[in-house]
């Protein structure tokens, strides 16, 4: 029976209602989605390993002959073990299956099988647990491994996809225009999908996956360009030109060249008659708040109000103080609105906003999502937003009509990648730090020197300074064992330090499991100096300024990304005292060493980001792996930025030639772009 691309999966031979409901859990309802469900990995069945040379603890493929079986052992109700004895390359191999009697029974004594799994045991007697059993006839192929779920194994998925591919009623519909395929020397989608599922060799596999990733990146880039194009059409009353002189007149220092550049770009946006959508990217401590203040000043001069949003109450309070310091002398009224502002105060602020008496309102993100009404909102400033991305921004700007937006991010990312996260924004870069900072000295030590480092920290505390100790122990990996979770270890670690090396000092604990109010309470006790040593997970990453903190000590430094380490280091060196960052790691290995050398060698966040990109690929850098970006499911970026750059160039060329994408050869592409824009708009994150 001929199968159509748009049919429900139940049209595939072997998929009934029950299986279809399992597929739904993987987000698969139609044949297209099934066929686009790509392997997450492949087992190279050409590379059979000699058991005698197998590396313990690693997953490998071995060929073994079954020589005996023990019966099933019932350990308890619902849990049984089945052991199978085998021989391979002259060695004994014991295979254990758990609750998988059928798998064990299917193995015949005297027959050879390919087994794939982790090899353990002793030198003479190897063991494998629950290996994957592969038909010997398939040696020489690449076996796809699919993302699976309970009740739906990779094997089943492979069979269903094969069934679908073999009964499709024609080639898979092409999305990319023929010209583009030729020009980029790309295979068709039909070829790519078929070969991504069943590659005959690595080269084919790479070519297939690159084709699919390219398409995705092209759609993504085109969507970004269209969002930007749509935005450029949004008109508003020009503000200014505003003279910067009065603002500069009240500053206690001269702005850096980077700050000046960013301010000029903002002022020119504001006076252009178009709605501003700008990102100010600058390393921690580069002085982005001043730039934001200048923007709010210009908007005030234009007779409009501004709102500034911070991710936490504490940061909002910090911004309030800074912004008041800059703007109150110029006659602007700056107020704070957070969850802790009491009803009476809130009413007064709401009245002031509506009456147009408040010129800048600083608050948490709840600020704008609530019922707050401005009389004439002209600018929304968002701080430290790199975790949010396009969806949230578009949700926000739809609040006010034609409101300018300014986003401030302390995560420097290489230019090509910024298009993924910020493709709809114009970017201003602040590349330097204000003069007169004492740079942070960075040390890298192994755990044998930990006690010495503790002594160093105690000396600083005795001098009246404060310190951070960051450890990645809390649940943030999401991999804790229930009951004994990693959480306990962080709590325990803080406790141990408080009773041991830091006995007599005040030790606080901050981790991701605390409620926001609890986090804020801990942070404000640290800010006030009541807590001397703050044991924390990466939640301290987001920027509260504690100038008295001069030591940042990081356990298991190898587990953090370079940019993340750099952000953490940026928490110190904010005052007039010399500061240090101590990285503790026992990781050997080339990459680990290279990475830590990179962080030690420079204080330039952009260079570190480039290095991070080189060493780990963009997925990690952007946190895509954890959070995902709608529309980027296949581009795993292991191929790196070149594919992305090519896709960006191709998208730009396409839109130059056909801005509305309404030429007949662009219909499918245009639909895909529209679908993605719809998805980006509707998903909260
Ligand atoms: P970030 O970019 O991390 O948000 P901030 O705006 O918090 O940085 O600024 C960090 C510190 O640098 C603040 O204490 C601020 O007053 C100071 N600062 C900002 N600009 C300058 C400047 N041009 N010269 C000297 N100090 C500055
Ligand atoms: Mg800041």
UniProtKB/TrEMBL annotation:
InterPro entries, alphabetized: DEAD/DEAH_box_helicase_dom, Helicase_ATP-bd, Helicase_C-like, NA-bd_OB-fold, P-loop_NTPase, RecG/Mfd, RecG_dom3_C, RecG_wedge
Residue span, Helicase ATP-binding domain: 269-430
Keywords of the record: ATP-binding, DNA damage, DNA repair, DNA-binding, Helicase, Hydrolase, Nucleotide-binding
Highest taxon, organism lineage: Bacteria
Pfam hit, one: RecG_dom3_C
Xref: SUPFAM superfamilies: Nucleic acid-binding proteins, P-loop containing nucleoside triphosphate hydrolases
MF terms (GO), sorted A to Z: helicase activity
CDD domains tied to this protein: DEXHc_RecG
Residue ranges of domain Helicase C-terminal in the record: 463-614
PROSITE patterns noted in UniProt: HELICASE_ATP_BIND_1, HELICASE_CTER
Signal sequence region: none
Name of this protein: Probable DNA 3'-5' helicase RecG
Organism per entry: Yanshouia hominis
């Amino acid at each position: 029976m001929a199968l159509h691309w748009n049919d429900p999966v139940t049209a595939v031979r072997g998929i009934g209602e029950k299986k279809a409901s399992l597929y739904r859990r993987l987000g698969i309802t139609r044949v297209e989605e099934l066929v686009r469900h790509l392997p997450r990995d492949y087992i190279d069945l050409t590379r059979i390993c000699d058991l005698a040379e197998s590396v313990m603890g690693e997953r490998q493929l071995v060929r073994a002959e079954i020589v005996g079986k023990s019966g099933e052992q019932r350990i308890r109700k619902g849990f049984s073990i089945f052991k199978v004895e085998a021989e391979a390359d002259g060695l004994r191999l014991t295979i254990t299956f758990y609750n998988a009697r059928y798998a064990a029974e299917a193995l015949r004594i005297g027959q050879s099988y390919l087994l794939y799994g982790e090899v353990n045991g002793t030198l003479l007697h190897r063991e494998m647990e629950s290996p994957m059993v592969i038909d010997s006839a398939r040696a020489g192929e690449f076996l796809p491994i699919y993302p699976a779920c309970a009740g739906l194994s990779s094997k089943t998925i492979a069979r269903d996809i094969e069934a679908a591919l073999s009964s499709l009623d024609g080639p898979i519909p092409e999305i990319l225009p023929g010209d583009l395929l030729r020009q980029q020397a790309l295979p068709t989608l039909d070829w790519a999908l078929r070969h991504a599922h069943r590659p005959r060799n690595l080269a084919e596999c790479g070519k297939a996956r690159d084709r699919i990733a390219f398409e995705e990146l092209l759609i993504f880039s085109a969507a970004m360009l269209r969002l930007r194009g749509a935005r450029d059409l949004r008109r508003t009353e020009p503000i200014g030109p505003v003279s910067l002189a009065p603002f500069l007149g009240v500053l206690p220092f001269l702005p850096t060249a980077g700050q000046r550049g960013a301010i000029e770009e903002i002022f020119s946006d504001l006076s252009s008659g178009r709605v501003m959508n700008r990102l100010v990217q600058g390393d921690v401590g580069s002085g982005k708040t001043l730039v934001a203040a200048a923007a709010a000043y210009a908007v005030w001069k234009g007779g409009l109000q501004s709102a500034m949003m911070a991710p936490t109450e504490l940061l909002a309070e910090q911004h309030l103080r800074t912004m008041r310091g800059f703007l109150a002398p110029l006659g602007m009224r700056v107020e704070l609105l957070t969850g802790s502002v009491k009803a009476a105060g809130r009413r007064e602020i709401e009245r002031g906003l509506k009456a147009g008496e408040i010129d800048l309102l600083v608050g948490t993100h709840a600020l704008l999502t609530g019922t707050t009404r401005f009389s004439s909102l002209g600018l929304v400033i968002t701080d430290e937003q790199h975790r949010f991305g396009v969806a949230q921004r578009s949700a926000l700007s739809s609040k006010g009509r034609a409101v300018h937006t300014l986003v401030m991010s302390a995560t420097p990312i290489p230019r090509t990648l910024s298009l993924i996260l910020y493709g709809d924004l114009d970017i201003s870069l602040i590349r330097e730090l204000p003069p007169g900072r004492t740079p942070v000295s960075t040390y890298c030590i192994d755990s044998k020197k930990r006690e010495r480092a503790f002594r160093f920290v105690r000396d600083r505390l005795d001098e009246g300074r404060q310190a951070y100790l960051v450890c990645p122990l809390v649940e943030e990996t999401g991999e804790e064992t229930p009951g004994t979770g990693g959480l306990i270890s962080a709590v325990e670690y803080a406790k141990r330090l408080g009773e041991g090396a830091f006995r007599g000092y005040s030790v606080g604990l901050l981790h991701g499991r605390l409620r926001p109010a609890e986090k804020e309470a801990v942070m404000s006790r640290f800010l006030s100096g009541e807590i001397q040593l703050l044991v924390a997970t990466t939640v301290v990453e987001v920027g509260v300024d504690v100038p008295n903190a001069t030591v940042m000590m990081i356990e298991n430094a190898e587990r953090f990304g370079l940019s993340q380490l750099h952000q953490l280091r940026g928490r110190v060196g904010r005052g007039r005292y010399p500061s240090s960052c101590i990285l503790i790691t026992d990781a050997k290995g080339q990459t680990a060493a290279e990475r830590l050398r990179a962080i030690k060698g420079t204080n330039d966040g952009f260079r570190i980001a480039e290095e991070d990109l080189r060493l780990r690929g963009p997925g990690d850098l952007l946190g895509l792996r954890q959070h995902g970006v709608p529309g980027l499911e296949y581009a795993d970026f292991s191929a790196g930025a070149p594919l992305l750059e090519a896709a960006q160039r191709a998208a730009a060329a396409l839109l130059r030639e056909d801005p509305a994408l309404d030429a007949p050869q662009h219909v499918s592409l245009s639909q895909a772009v529209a679908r993605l824009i719809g998805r980006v708009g509707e998903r909260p994150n």
